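Lecture 7 notes: from sequence to structure.

We start with a single chain of 285 residues. Read the sequence below before looking at the structure.
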Amino acid sequence: MQIICPLCQLPLIKEQINNKQGRWYCDNNHSFDIAKQGYTNLLPVQNKKSRSPGDDAEMVASRQRFLAKELYGPVATSLNGLVSDYVKAQTLNQVTVIDAGCGEGYYTNKIQQGLIDYPGDSEIVGVDISKHAVLAAARQHKTIQWFVAKSQAIPVAEHCADILVSLFSPIASEEFQRCLKSNGLLIIASTGKQHLLELREIIYPQVKEEAFNPQTALDTCFKPLNSTRICLPIELGDNSTIQDLLAMTPHFWRASPERKQLLADIDHLSVTIDIQLHCFINTGK
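Now the structure, written as tokens:
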């Protein structure tokens, strides 16, 4: 997968320097050092709306702890099934995947693991606007290419990806279409009406039942293929797990301190996960 310069869009070349991590550079002499952890920051300062955009270190750590318990494992299994079905149907010799809004890399790594036994080669790129998230991903998963970048400006060449996933992240329809090959697969995750209902009933005086349809945010070039719903209860067996789940969701910022305090003395909570994985094909039209 060709990585491009975020400043001039020329191809970036990877250079190893004295057995160290090295750098990426283009013919216009723009240079981007590869951090010792293995990721590269391709988010220009002028494209930042804050000093440290995206999830902060505490939120990333909460998500890491929670996802490590595999409570969302069924979501990853369903995601891998969709990826596998597409790859087999297309009989691809090489599979190129972009995870736009990869966070700490849990699902990105699961996708890579799911492709290990595929006879063709695979190349996976994870991008996220949060440096803290990409740093955590790079520390854990060394064989994936990690970049700090916006989902609205993914640093790859046009039409280079077979599959692009956007899981609980902003949808950048035009950019996704630019990155995907014709007939490429787009997978978007959204939450259903029952998602974390039991948690929301505690932290909100009134719970809104709403579900997002990603089709409304996509250009007409994306044709719906199919969708998979994962709806089941999970058990949160201690307060630290409950707090980690809250901290990794937008509800942490929306709920009042008084309402969040209601969770402080709860040591067990059964909650519903209600997640939809929507598949679209890039028709290029």
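The radius of gyration is 19 Å. Keep this in mind for problem set 3.
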